[in-house]
Amino acid sequence: KMQPSGRHYVVVRPLFSEDSFAEQHERINRTRKTLRKLCLYCLHCSCDTNRAKNAARSLLPIIGWIKNYNIKEWLLGDIVSGISTGLVAVLQGLAFSLLASLPPGYGLYTAFFPAIIYFFLGTSRHLSVGAFPILSLMVGAVVTRLVPDGGPPANITGFEGLSMEQQRVLVASSVTFVMGAFQLIMGLLQVGFIVMYLSETLVSGFTTAAAVHILVSQLRFVLGLDFPGVNGPLAIVYVTLYDFFSIITEYDSKIYNFLIKLHHFIYESPIAPNLEVIKESAVEAFPMAIVGFAVAFSVAKVYSVKHDYTIDGNQELLAFGVSNMFGASFRSFAASTALSRTAIQESTGGKTQIAGVLSAMMVLIVIVAVGFLLEPLPRSVLGALVIVNLKGMLMQFRELPFLWKNDRTDFVTWVVTFVASLFLGLDLGLAVGLGAELFTVVCRTQFPRCSLLANITGTDIYRDRKDYNSIYEPEGVKIFKIPSPIFFANIDFFRDKLVQAVGFSPLKVLKKRNKALRKIRKMLGLEVRRPSTDTSEDNNSMEGLDQPIDFSGIPIQVNWNTELPANISVPPVNIHSLVLDFSAVSFLDISALKGLKATLKEFLRIEVDVYIVSCDVYIMEKLHQCSFFDDEIKTSIFYPTLHDAMLHILEKHPDHGELEKVFTGRLRYKFYECSQTM
């Protein structure tokens, strides 16, 4: 029975091992769903009307929120937000198209078509869908690679008879289509969790490097210089900046400005993606799909938490996949979200995606009716607008001192991602950053901080013995904790740390004892026992020394902790019990299981009792399935809590004087702790 008692903590219960606990508390056997059972279950329920409705709501989230739309309270805010966001979307669409190496007006398509599709399929109520500077830059890298400024285009069949502008539009729409296809496939495969592998630190370093790329790429527009845009590893150093400083030295009072052209866009018909371009750009499209979704999902999650509603990562992948594929058919390039634009949509009163679709209508009005008013706008102004939008990303440099002081591993991840993205290009940089991040995860799990625990005096709490003064350590007992999963990569590390913790190698002790026993048998004139496989005549043979010690036939009792004959030396063993705390071990693989079994047997064979505590029930199931238990390793060594195991050890090996502090009975214990009333 559990009941509050002020600041007191009182527990009265039997002392449990895992075996005794299983006898008294029956566990429910749950049937796990296999893929075959899940498919049969889905087929059986496919005609269920309610399930069909739920499936429709899942695929079209608009069905769920539109019926609850509060016209009186939300409509005015959505209208104001839609108009405000639409104006920003127009300017950003024009500006970010320069990053994609396309004529400015094509950014308006990106601000319109994807937003319309997201209105029906998206789960975020505040996300403003459209051009995103980093994605635009990544699209521009593909565009300038296949259709460079200063040279012939790539040998692609669909380029015949097209102008440079048309070729670039075809490349941008094709790479956007395959990017959307990747997102759609990931959504169908339910792998929205993949974004979790992109930590905030990695994204920060990546976006900061992208901001530097964007800043450099806009210098030619802001200063009115005419040099070709390039991409690739080290391009920012050897080509772009070199070209910039070479031209600026010859710069005179004449400014080279481009004017945007919008008047012909509304008459352009949809196009199909080019298969050859898709083959050429698929490798670059995949990181674009990841980056676009990661940024959008991160921003959407912030506002969903703020306004207390849920978003579905897999549905977001579907929404952006279809949005980008649909938009690509109408000459738009990669769409995600811009942080500043979404912030405006939310802060100006936007409550739902009604604001998003109204902002798209504002863009449509510009495309159809008033676009000609923007034609005199020079590209230098748009370039300046792009640079202004980089402030937030460039200010991320301020995170470095904090990371250096608090988490050096994250600091390294940030710097590696930034440097790689800056000098190798955004696609390779993202891959390097992800590799560095995964490497840090592997290092943290492969080399965890193992520790020896001790009891905090007067409690049932156990902590690292190095961190506290008021501790109780029973003589002859070691409590070892490994705070990570145990698998093939860290099982040797685990064994080495365990040997360091106890102060001796159980295998070496076992071999020394078996070797000493052979000498004792020889001194007593007894037959030296060897394994049946041992055919050597040498009494010092190493065969069989790792097997259990066999005292049969010896007329004297051997005490390994006393003084032995002069020519026999055996390392001392100063513990009688070893407790392994598995509370932080989430899984064991087969390699670790074999290594653990061998280690336990080594300790048991030198008369050190081993106990495993707080082991996950599913790990226990795996141990049974893999024949972990035998005549030496029994289920009785497992205990549900560390304190249960310690009470059992103290009952078996009384530690007089300290025993009463933690142990009050043979089959039960009572723990009483009181503190001052707050």
TrEMBL record:
It holds the Pfam family STAS. It comes from the Eukaryota. The lineage of its organism: Eukaryota, Metazoa, Chordata, Craniata, Vertebrata. It is a multi-pass membrane protein. The keyword Transmembrane applies. Its main location: membrane. Keywords: Membrane, Transmembrane, Transmembrane helix. PANTHER family: SULFATE TRANSPORTER. This is Solute carrier family 26 member 3. InterPro entries: S04_transporter_CS (IPR018045), SLC26A/SulP_dom (IPR011547), SLC26A/SulP_fam (IPR001902), STAS_dom (IPR002645), STAS_dom_sf (IPR036513). GO terms for molecular function: secondary active sulfate transmembrane transporter activity.
